Amino acid sequence: MVGYVTLGTNDLPRATRFYDVLLESLGAKRLMELESFILWGTSFDDASLAITKPFDGNASTVGNGVMVALQAQSKDAVDALHKQALELGAQDEGAPGPRGDGFYAGYFRDLDGNKLNAFFLG
After folding, report:
1. What is the pTM of this model?
2. Upper half-sphere CA count for residue 63 (Cβ side, 13 Å)
3. What is the pLDDT of residue 1?
4. How far apart are CA 80 and CA 97, in angstroms?
5. What three-state secondary structure class fits 23?
6. How does strand 29-34 pair with strand 48-52?
7. 49 near 39, Cβ under 8 Å?
8. pLDDT tens for each residue of 60-104
9. Residue 8, Cα to own-chain centre: how many angstroms?
10. How many alpha carbons fall within 13 Å on the CB side of residue 52?
11. C-alpha angle 8/112/27, rounded to 5°?
12. CA dihedral of 77, 80, 83, 87, whole degrees rounded to 10
């Protein structure tokens, strides 16, 4: 299955500050850090999220139809993560709420325009 997901950024320090705070609330920490790449997760055995400046040196662009889903432990945790993302400067892409059959999610775009959601099943 998924080992890690990488999102592009044009401003690594800014993106790093955003994800340091946002992912800490999910129990994640930096697992790997290179000059132009940072990986967060709870361990190398679980799925992780990374940001990077594009290897080819071109500007990072948002993938149309691409989204990263961050699993939360409760509906309240979804609400809190979505709120925190907005407070950190993310743009709202859909307030937290039920999306059908026990799926609860809130959607946002990070500082580079990458689409993410926080979700809870149950």
Report:
1. 0.90
2. 11
3. 65
4. 12
5. helix
6. unpaired
7. yes
8. 999 988 999 999 999 999 999 999 999 999 999 999 999 989 999
9. 11
10. 16
11. 75
12. -130
C-alpha distances in Å from residue 35, one per residue of 7, 14, 49, 50: 15, 14, 16, 13
Hey, what are 111's tokens?
Answer: 């500082």
At residue 2, the pLDDT reads 81
- CATH code matching the domain that covers 4-53+67-121, chosen among 3.10.180.10, 2.40.50.100, 1.10.287.180, 3.20.20.140: 3.10.180.10
Which residues, including other chains, have CB under 8 Å from residue 101's CB and lie 6 or more apart? none
Q: Which residues pair with 50 in a beta bridge?
A: 6, 39
Mean pLDDT of the chain: 95
Where helices occur in 25-114 by DSSP H, the ranges are 75-87
